[in-house]
Amino acid sequence: MTDINKLSINTIRVLAADMVQAANSGHPGAPMGCAPMAHVLFTRFLKANPKNSKWLNRDRFVLSNGHGCALQYVLLHLMGYKVTLDDLKNFRQLGSNTPGHPENTHTDGIEVTTGPLGQGISNAVGMAIAERHLAATFNKPGFPVIDNTVYAIAGDGCLQEGVASEACSLAGHLQLGNLIVLYDSNGIQIDGSTKLGFTEDVLERYSSYGWQTLAVADGDNDLEGLTRAIEAAKAEPNRPTLIKVETTIGFGAAKAGTEGVHGAPLGAESLAAVKALFDFDPAQKFSVSDDVYRLYGERAAEGARREEEWHALMARYAQAHPELHAELVRRIEGRLPQGWEKALPRYTPEDKPVATRKLSETVINAIAGVVPELIGGSADLTGSNLTRWKGAVDFQPESTGLGNYAGRYVRYGVREHGMAAISNGIAAYGANIPFASTFLNFISYAAGATRLSALSHLRVLYIMTHDSIGLGEDGPTHQPIETMAMLRATPNYLNFRPADGNEVSAAYLAALQHSDRPSVLSLTRQNLPQLEGSSIESALLGGYNLHTYGSGDKIDLLIVGTGSETSLAVDTAKLLASEHALNVKVVSMPCLELFNAQSDEYRHSVLTPGVPSISVEALTTFGWHKYVHRPIGIDSFGASGPVDKLYKHFGLVPDVVAGKALKLIDYYKNRPVPTLDLEF
Fold first, then answer.
1. Dist. CA 101–CA 99, nearest whole Å
2. Contact 136, 98 (CB under 8 A)
3. Whole-prediction pTM value?
4. In degrees rounded to 5, what are phi and psi of residue 65?
5. Residue 416: active-site member
6. Active-site residue, selected from the candidate residues 166, 361, 373, 416
7. Alpha helices in 100-214 (DSSP H)
8. DSSP H helical ranges for 435-500
9. pLDDT level of residue 57 (50, 70, 90 thresholds)
10. Can you state the percent helix, strand and coil of the chain, rounding each to 5?
11. For residue 558, what are the β-bridge partners?
């Protein structure tokens, strides 16, 4: 190991330890152990330009064991990203540029938000899919405009998580030779030695997935061994590579090689001893020599040169393939195709009843050709989710005879969590818009990743079908009751429960136009009528006055419906108008989040103050008391049976709902009706 390499690696170790000590919080062990492999990767292999961290053809780096983010922040600082020495000093402080786990929305150079273990390596699989797809779509002989590698560092905890197994199994099948994972095998986790519960042969497991597996026995010192391993990984075109790197957690510290150095500051005495061991002045904090800055600066300059070469290549590409160039630039810039929304179908009440999952299929078929960046698939439920459009080609290695990398339909298998995490990686890569599909109830399998979609401000479309007891005989194991409430409680989500064809089209329009948040489209198995008063434009407001039934100026009752229960609200209103001479306004509420974003004036024009109100939804009533006086729904698990009998069993039929509405009206006859949905 040359002096400059040794100095650089020890600088990373000491800076990381200084950061954790200053914050009195954090994880020094992983950064100190991973410093050699990270140094080799960043100074010898990573193609990136710190002055333009969003350059599309950069290599991607993911720190899957995100608790070790002091390592990544130090590397970003040394490379010249927008991470200053003061940012390192403010590690884990409120509002700082260096939060406690990497966040893609906070820090320049962070590709994806990691910390929940297993997510980052799964995101890396998505990034590798995105690269392979774009390369197959846009590269032409002599014009490799997309040719980057995806690197990740992952620890024992990441490889124990089920989501990583799901994603990595698929990566092996898909032969993603552009994916290289450095496995930090330090034998330690929070509870102690991995011998307590993780004794499998990881390399054998990954080999069975179809990965190339390599090993570096001395990850603390053998820089040339690390270099040879990464070179061998880059030379393998048809298999992702896992490199097992045996390291010492907290290398150089008094508690090195133990759980004691995992998640706590070293302490002043131990930190001083580490600095002395590495020939640093124990009295100095956050010390970086000019030689280390110079080495990393040279690598950054090489990255800038590589980007300049790419722009020159793109200029020649524009001359040789002008249409492809224009399309690629549009997608890089994140612009949707001009006029794509004109392809969305519209409906009238005269159109026949159709299940909203089937209406969704109609939309997908309408837009798949005009929004070519749409890429995704189903977790082994294609025939039920109805997400594969006519003429779709599967994303598969050409050698399988099942498709090719230019294909846009991904066969995820029964891997809901992996599917969502992979979708986050595809979205984070850029120039693609991913969708993922399963039954709504099974989005709970994917909750760890879907939450990160929202936190990371990633546009992922979750197309979820069989959205209530309306799925029928499969029963409570498959019927989501609480699921939508969980999703609605998650910040930065758009949750749609469309009632008819116009609202389905509006859901897709809003989901694609909101580039900084994920969307869930909750769709029915059963047929629904096309409603009088619905429109795409109205549905984009989240909630709107659908129709009023009865006569007179005074509204006696307001009924809010979502999804399949909006037509139930209509039927109830008609019954109350015809049999009780009431004037009943029906409100359709396909998306509470969009409705909440409207002005107070608009919201109160819909949820009319002073009028008794009920909501009807074949899900939990949780959360509805903010909007209506009497929510009607299901606050138990569902049941197995034919759909019509289930709705009657749970009281979601016009006569039962009308009876509850009449009791509410009677209750407020001599009482003031409280105004709800107030913001102070």
1. 5
2. no
3. 0.98
4. -80, 75
5. yes
6. 416
7. 119-138, 156-160, 162-173, 202-209
8. 447-455, 483-489
9. very high
10. 45, 15, 40
11. 585, 613
